[in-house]
Amino acid sequence: MPNSTGVTVTVGAGDTVNVSIADAVIIRDIGNSSEGLNLDSLAPLSNLSALRIVSRVGINYALSDPNSADSVWAIAGMTATAVNAATPFIPVRNTAFSDAGWNWVRGSPIFLGPSGTLTQTPPTSGYLVVVAKVLDPQTIFLEIEEPIDL
């Protein structure tokens, strides 16, 4: 069982947080930390639904394809809202998302699914890409990992 020892943790350039180790999870809201990733505001190739993983394709964004090496190695982030074709946007990453309709299983990662969808069913071919971690059944933390070739 964790003790109540206090520690100071550096979380960014000069940012520190005093943390008491206890039976709690502390989440620091870092907002959309796409900054520093050199993500461009680009238009999608077609209309995109909200909460879809997208990859950079030339000068556009398109739904990520877990069966395409080019697509999985060019993942830019996720659409926070629906986006119309020809409307530039910047995908989000490294941030929490909540949806009352979700029912994710804690302890199981969230993978890139077909057409940029989110799924907890790991693929059996193509590329395995963990795109998020479950914080609670209705909340995920988007954190894209390197693809694994299956």
Report on the architecture of this protein.
The protein has one helix at 69-72, and strands at residues 6-10, 16-20, 43-44, 53-57, 60-63, 75-78, 95-98, 110-112, 118-119, 127-128, 130-136, 139-142, 148-149. A five-stranded antiparallel beta sheet has the order 7-12-11-8-9, with no helix packed on it. A four-stranded mixed beta sheet has the order 3-5-4-6, with no helix packed on it. A two-stranded antiparallel sheet has the order 1-2. Helices cover 3% and strands 33% of the residues. The protein has 150 residues and is an all-beta fold. The N and C termini lie far apart (38 Å). It has one domain (6-149).
Outline the secondary-structure elements.
Elements (H helix, E strand, L loop, with lengths): L5 E5 L5 E5 L22 E2 L8 E5 L2 E4 L5 H4 L2 E4 L16 E4 L11 E3 L5 E2 L7 E2 L1 E7 L2 E4 L5 E2 L1
Q: Which terms would index this structure?
A:
disordered N terminus, 5-stranded antiparallel beta sheet, 150 residues, 4-stranded mixed beta sheet, globular, 13 strands, mainly beta
